[in-house]
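Notes from hallway chat w/ T.B., transcribed later so I don't forget. T.B. wanted the structure written out for a chain they're using in a teaching module, and asked if we could keep both sequence and structure tokens in one place. Agreed to drop them here.
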Amino acid sequence: MRFLCSKRRLSASVTVESSLTVSLSLLALFAALGICFQNHDAAFGSAILHERLELYSHAPEDADLKTGEIPDERLGFALSEGPLRMRIRTGARSVSGTMQGGRYSDEQELKLFEPQKMMRSLTLVEELGAEMKKK
């Protein structure tokens, strides 16, 4: 019972030091979380943009894929940068896109997938192999 009634008094310097320590550690924790959120958004935005560019680069010529600002339901999952915006442009030999939001921006470019080039190379190799067998 005596333990419950006793009041232990700390000196003022200990409470001031502990309040400074706790506030600095909380500040460091929130700063680290902010950096983690920014890195998450950068990786997340780059992955979505690359996936969309792959879709456009492998699409057949008669596919009806729109260009310009592209809505994507996953763009709302950005943690720190606010709403992300994706813009796709197609050229004669490549597809390029940009992703922007807050302080984050990314630009990527992919060449169009051309399977006929590979097929011509394979045909050439097969013909050379057949000629080598004849000799």
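Follow-up for T.B.: Strands lie at 68-70, 85-90, 94-101, 104-111. Might be a good example for the class.
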